[in-house]
Fold each of these.
Amino acid sequence: MRALQYRAIGAAPELVEIETPEPGPGEVRLKVTAAGLCHSDWFLMGLPAEQYVYGLPLTLGHEAAGIVDKLGPGASGVAVGDAVAVYGPWGCGHCHACRQGRENYCVNAAALGIAPPGLGAPGAMAEYLIVDDVRHLVPLGGLDPVECVSLTDAGLTPYHAISSSLSKLWPGSTAVVIGVGGLGHVAVQILRAITSATIIAVDVDDDKLALATEVGAHRTVRSDPDAASRIRELTGGVGAEAVFDFVGAAGTVQLAREVVAIDGAVQIVGIGGATLPTGFFSTPFGASVRAPYWGSRSELEEVLDLARSGSVRVHVERFSLDEAPEAYRRLHEGDIRGRAVVVP
Ligand code: NAD
Ligand code: 9ON
Ligand code: ZN
Ligand code: ZN
């Protein structure tokens, strides 16, 4: 089969021919119908050898949808032909978090060498994908795989972050979304769907700000040295009760610190690597700072339900597997509006 692989540190991803994998005991093989590109793929491809932990060669793609194609020995609960999305943050299945469906916070995954597809295990930028357990398959229930594959990460991750700040997002509150890319443009829609907060979107790119307005942001602010004072002004000096940073760079965590309200919440989702010192003289009284990771299985079901009801729609740019390297190049240059999705 054909697969897009990251094969050498610092090299561009490459389309290669590899053996079609066979599902082992308990595993399921999918014929991939859609695979989303995430900025995290660029993060890992930018790591120096001493920090790179994902294995080589690595078939990319941690947002996956497919048709059940073959069941390994003992696998049951799905049938060949079922259309499914893949829950990506695989865990041990047995710890307290996993039993709650919160495998994104599995305490054993790292020690057991369990990794998500495309982030250690072979990913979805290929014709076929092996899923390690049926519990990681969520029925698409009539949703279009290409339109919805990115809900498994670009939808689930912001949904998880927003859900855990819901108590701050009362009617009359303000939510700031920094970075209106793949995750951010879905975050704006989720905020509109499940809260009454006023949404201020922030980005460096005017076209991303235009997209923010199209998907429901009430106000937009350019990410520049005046952004904090502009947001303070828009909130009557109070600041934002919740700030979602989908960049995580030094400038954006600083902006989050400057605009979060007293007793507000900052969720640093972007993995730009910056830190935000939290303490009595650094952040406003009572403000919390959290760096969430992906989301739970039941939250994925909820995000898919938001799509089914028409409240959330991913803006998708489609590419073939042949065009995937070009899609990655455009993502790197900030030239994707919404999410790039590969249709093998
Ligand atoms: P993306 O490239 O699609 O979007 C990033 C957006 O941020 C773009 O619109 C860009 O213009 C904007 N941006 C860049 N610098 C900015 C700045 N200084 N101020 C304001 N806006 C700025 O990326 P994505 O795929 O949506 O991913 C967003 C981030 O979230 C990445 O860091 C990714 O690795 C991370 N991520 C984290 C998790 C998690 O579980 N924590 C999950 C998925 C992705
Ligand atoms: O889903 C993603 O994009 C994040 C959680 C990947 C982080 C990583 O590199 O493991
Ligand atoms: Zn991702
Ligand atoms: Zn676990």
Note: Residues 65 and 305 are 16 Å apart (CA to CA).
Amino acid sequence: MTATVRTRIAPSPTGFLHLGTARTALYSWAFARHHGGRFVLRIEDTDLARSTQESVDQILASMRWLGLDFDEGPIYQMQRLDRYHAVVEQMIAAGTAYRCWCTPDELDAMREAQRARGEKTLYDRRWRPAPGKVLPPVPDPGSGVQPVVRFANPTDGIVRWDDLVKGPIAISNHEIDDLIILRPDGVPTYNFAVVVDDWDMAISHVFRGDEHINNTPWQINIFRAIAGEGAPLPQFGHCPIILGEDGLKLSKRRGAVSITAYEEAGYLPEAMLNYLARLGWSHGDEELFSLQQMVQWFDGSHLAKSPAQWDPAKLAWVNAQYLKQADDQRLAALVAAQLAGRGVGAAVDDRLAAMCALFKDRCNTTVDLADWLQMYFAPVSPSAADLSTHLSDAVRPALVALRDRLAECPWDRPGIAQALKDTLAEHRLKMPLLAMPLRVLVCGRVQTPAVDAVIALFDRGTVLARLQHI
Ligand code: GLU
């Protein structure tokens, strides 16, 4: 690749950063890193009614959590209005844009008439200047009608591009009309601002969702009008949508939640990235790979043409693999945060790290881990069924003897193992008969890793207190 690779992600702050955008952000980021290029974050905030600061903050937090660092930005479109206005004026002067004073009522009537004739509803270009054409009279300034500015789309020809994902695409200019590029309030529309920005920011590659394929012909035409026929167009890669488990498009109503919701649900960012990467891209049969490997491999090829299906079970599996390898001190901090959210205080220390090491193999998320470790920091409530099953009269004397030994023994795994062993020998019992009620009373549950290892991580006082009323 000779020219500098420059990619961008351009979310609209009208909601949270959703999974599809996070995936194209990852592809754009990895592609820039692969080529030693630059990655830009642009906030497309021209939808004034729907854009919010809260959403901007959430987008930034999601990017930070995922670790997708950008080299430039965030650049806000609403801070670039002067630039868009200047381009509009140049285009009007060059004849590639024009003012249109149609009122909404006129446009409705135009579409109504087209429908009645069985035609496609396209703007009829009544305000588009042409040699010898008489334009409608400009409304009196006192009338309050403000013009929009429209792009003078080429009336003939075919717009073609070779999509990095979909392959060659061609759309006839007959299919598209003269798009509004500037609203009456002076705010540009998406298809115009995006082109000015991609041109000004020298974007070389655009990865985005395939809902934008229909916008791309306008964007290419506007690009040529602004940058000139010979200017190098960005290369476009339109990634298919992500389908929900039900095979329908992921939406806010159907399972799509923010990236930050996955953070709260106990997923690790590297697992999220690994899973998102595979959802629409492959490198052979590799399922688990580091971000460095992805950067090494991601050259824009092997992007899937057909929609991928969101698979929560697979994501949980990927997360479990990363959890197993994760540093225990790091997990301790994450679990402490989860517990704090439940009002349970736990210090981030070596003991909590040791608990994470003991339990992480059986967890998919740090929420699962917190579910396990909560027993160390908050009271447990064994179920009546477990108590009646495991706490029989036959075993009570042995439990009392064990409690006495636990009050005296060295408080570590070998010391506790010895106390158990001695009690079993003394009462001629097999391990499960003693271990099960011990688990129920101390841990509030019947299944745990090796009981001596589990007990050793409690403080002695807690264990003795839970064995008080046998
Ligand atoms: N603001 C657009 C969106 O969020 C950006 C599309 C693009 O990348 O061009 O869908």
Note: The two ends are 74 Å apart (CA to CA).
